[in-house]
Amino acid sequence: MQGITKQFKRFKREKRGVSAVITVMLSLILLIIVVSNVFLTSFQMNQVDLNRIQEDLNITSLTQAGVAAWSTAQNEFTVNTGTHVGS
Q1: Is residue 28 part of a domain?
Q2: Is the pLDDT of residue 68 over 80?
Q3: More confident of the two residues 87 and 6
Q4: N or C: which end of the chain has fewer CB within 10 A?
C-alpha cells in the first residue's frame, strides 16, 4: 500500500513539473513572437524610410508669383459685430 501512495505522490510531483515546463515553453514562444514582431515592424519602417529617401523629385514648371499672392492678410478680415479696436 505504501508503494502505491509513493507512486501517486511521485506522479503528482511530476505532473507539476510537466505543467511548469509547458508554462515555460509557452512563455518562451510568446516572447519570441513579440520580439520577432518588434523586429519585423522596425524592419518595415526602415524600408519605408529608405523608399522615401530614394524618391525622385523633379521640378517641371516654374512661374513667377506676384507680390499680392505672398502679401500678409491686412484687409481680408472684417469685424461684423462689436467695436473695432485698433490704431
Answers
A1: yes
A2: no
A3: 6
A4: C
74 found inside a domain: no
Query: How high is the pLDDT of residue 36?
Result: 93
25 lies in some domain: yes
CB proximity list for 45: less than 8 A, separation 6 or greater: none
Helices (H), 1-87: 2-53, 67-70
For residue 16 the three cell numbers come to 507539476
Examine residue 32 and state whether it is found in any structural domain, yes or no: yes
Q: Which three cell numbers stand for residue 8?
A: 501517486
For 87, the grid coordinates are 490704431
Q: Which residues of 48-76 are buried (b: 16+ CB within 10 A; e: fewer)?
A: eeeeeeeeeeeeeeeeeeeeeeeeeeeee
pLDDT band at 11, cuts 50/70/90?
Answer: low
